[in-house]
Amino acid sequence: MVLYEYQKCRNIRQNKTGSNPWFLLGLMVLLVAFAAEAVKGQASRGIILAAGIAVLAAGLVFYGAVLDIARGKQGYTKDLMGTTVSRKGLYGHMRHPGVWSFLLCSLGFGMIFPDGMGLALWFAFLNLGYTWLQDRYFFPVYLEGYEEYKKEVPYLFPRIK
Question: Residue 122: is its pLDDT beyond 50?
Fold first, then answer.
């Protein structure tokens, strides 16, 4: 996924257009790794399984809130390929709120498949690094007004008024 961001910035700097398959490939690697871990691991039982499903579901619901799907606006995805900063939904309160949904999904997966908890937390940590790179190096290149947005909207934790 970092290669996707790098290629996108490179294309912008070189005034190129064209396909950039790196994000899709990165997502596929992530899904295959989780699926492989799920296939080889044994699922939890009872209350731990129920709690894991609840945490995973909470992560998915929170991701829906991040995308602002509930109101049909699809906040982030509407601006995903654009050149402006999205301030819709949670993006008006914190930068990179999707980190929290990914963490919840990873914890839920790890609770459902305990042998995969290490992998899940490792991916959550890598995701945090990925968003830091986006915030510091990639988004300022292709999102207009990102430096001002960074001054106004905090990273990961909303301000309590």
Answer: yes
